[in-house]
Amino acid sequence: MLKGDHSVDVVIVGGGFSGVSTAVELCEKGCSVALVEANRISWGASGRNGGQLIGGLGHDPAAFRRTIGDAGVNEIYAMGAECVDIVSERIRKYNIECDLKWGYVEVALRPRHLRDYEEWAKDDKKLVLLDKSALQAYVNSDIYLGGYYKPDWGHLHPLNLCIGEAKVAEEMGAKIFEQSPVERITYANSPVIHTSSGSITAGHAIICGNAYLGSLVKHLDDRILPATSCIIATEQLTDEQIAASLPGDVAVCDTRTALDYYRLSADKRLLFGGLSNYSGLEPRNVEDIMRQKMNHVFPALEQVRLDYIWSGQMGISFRRMPQMGRLKGNVFYVGGYSGHGVAPTHVLGRTLAEAVTGNTKRFDYLASINHWKWPGGKLLRRPGMALGMMFYKLADMV
Length: 398
Ligand SMILES: Cc1cc2nc3c(=O)[nH]c(=O)nc-3n(C[C@H](O)[C@H](O)[C@H](O)COP(=O)(O)OP(=O)(O)OC[C@H]3O[C@@H](n4cnc5c(N)ncnc54)[C@H](O)[C@@H]3O)c2cc1C
Hints:
This protein is of the alpha/beta class. The protein has a single domain (4-392), classed as 3-Layer(bba) Sandwich (FAD/NAD(P)-binding domain). The protein is 35% helix and 27% strand. A hairpin with a 4-residue loop joins β13 and β14 (269-277). The longest helix is centred in the N-terminal third of the chain and has 30 residues, at 65-94. One of its GO terms (cellular component) is cytoplasm.
């Protein structure tokens, strides 16, 4: 817990992947770093997510061509590839135990999904198209029309990765203060963050509270909408049950906006996620809804016991592109990964560390993107988003 007044080069607010990966990058560059976390390291989305290690940054970088030009769009595509490399290199370099496994399959529920995959395969030589029967070797379900396999994406234990990275940062000298909610920020060239029992003055402050930040920073409160996603974990599966569900031991997503995502844990449980809820609330009957979803995909698992159920909040950006920029003075921020942040947080952590140490090229591209406020103000944006989500769900059915 933060007590007393401290001073460092960079103070980071939030101990998820955004904050922790930025801390590692800054420590590697020789900066003195303090990280302040309201709860425990990785308490938020980073410790609760589906563990799917997927490349790409944002939904459609090309949509920002008018603002950032061809060079900016190309840079964002390159960052989308780099982000997975950063994670795998960090795990290797620091020997972080987090059950990394390679292999990702995306599955099609509609013919138009298959047509999209064919287009993507033209640009991505590693993408292997799978017809319905080839898919069965990875995902043993009748509901899909086909899919694609990517050997260079995969899955891991996100909580262990984040805690492992925090230890790496700590070993390099970062000071980590848990159970220390930041209550106030003084915006200045040497910003100060304040908790109930202490403060930290720094050359730069970086706000990484994402969907859990509440109303601490109005600019972000207006632009990052917390949405709930839920995960169930089965009992440990037998070899027969695995053969009848996920024989490929790959990470899997379907192609809908309100998607299902799943994988096996290292101890052979099926972790099945979905049920994106833009009302920001967890539905009361999560267990029933999630079990129905899982049974629909894998009828062979109808009788398995569910051992764990949890949910988390992810930060959604209106234009589904992560948000990065400068508030006032030397206070920077990142967040709003829109449901896809395990890998992207890592390249944005690197980008922030570059910016703080004087190389703002990549930061400037991202910071120049205009992120829209969620319409409807505080009162109406949740019902508005719930309606928007209904629209996406209807579109997913076509
Ligand atoms: C259920 C679920 C499943 C997901 N599955 C995947 C997936 O499979 N693959 C994928 O790529 N992405 C997935 N995501 C998204 C991904 O988890 C996030 O994009 C990513 O973890 C965001 O990391 P972060 O550090 O920005 O935010 P978080 O991990 O949410 O961290 C923010 C931290 O800031 C702290 N904080 C907030 N306010 C303050 C304050 N005032 N003072 C101090 N600390 C504060 C919070 O306590 C929290 O620990 C999923 C998200 C959820 C919720």
